[in-house]
């Protein structure tokens, strides 16, 4: 029973880190983005901040997954196979969820 608590805590911490990073990105974008930055009297010109938010969120997520992959390799070397397989399971499940969502959107 103690081993499952350790695995759940391990995964909750990792998921919390990802949510914190994405929440900080969203808060930064929300408080600094001004769509009317280039507007003047002659025209109403908007800038596309949503695309930048998406790209930065994608980069943060990819770096997080790369970090989990490196941590998984490190845990295999340190002979902590249950935590390494927990990382692997999280990566596989989250990528399957993203694949299903992309399939349903198209």
TrEMBL record:
Alphabetical UniProt keywords: Membrane, Transmembrane, Transmembrane helix
Q: Which domain of life is it from?
A: Bacteria
> What stretches pass through the bilayer?
7-31, 51-77, 84-105
Protein's name according to its UniProt entry? Uncharacterized protein
Q: Which organism is it from?
A: Flavobacterium johnsoniae (strain ATCC 17061 / DSM 2064 / JCM 8514 / BCRC 14874 / CCUG 350202 / NBRC 14942 / NCIMB 11054 / UW101) (Cytophaga johnsonae)
């Amino acid at each position: 029973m103690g081993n499952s608590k350790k695995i759940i805590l391990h995964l909750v911490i990792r998921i919390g880190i990802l949510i914190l990073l994405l929440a900080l990105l969203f808060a930064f974008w929300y408080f600094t983005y001004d769509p009317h930055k280039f507007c003047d009297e002659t025209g109403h010109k908007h800038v596309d901040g949503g695309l930048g938010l998406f790209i930065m969120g994608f980069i943060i997520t990819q770096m997080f997954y790369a970090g989990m992959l490196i941590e998984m390799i490190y845990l295999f070397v340190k002979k902590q196979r249950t935590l390494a397989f927990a990382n692997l399971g999280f990566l596989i499940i989250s990528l399957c969820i993203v694949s299903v969502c992309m399939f349903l959107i198209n």
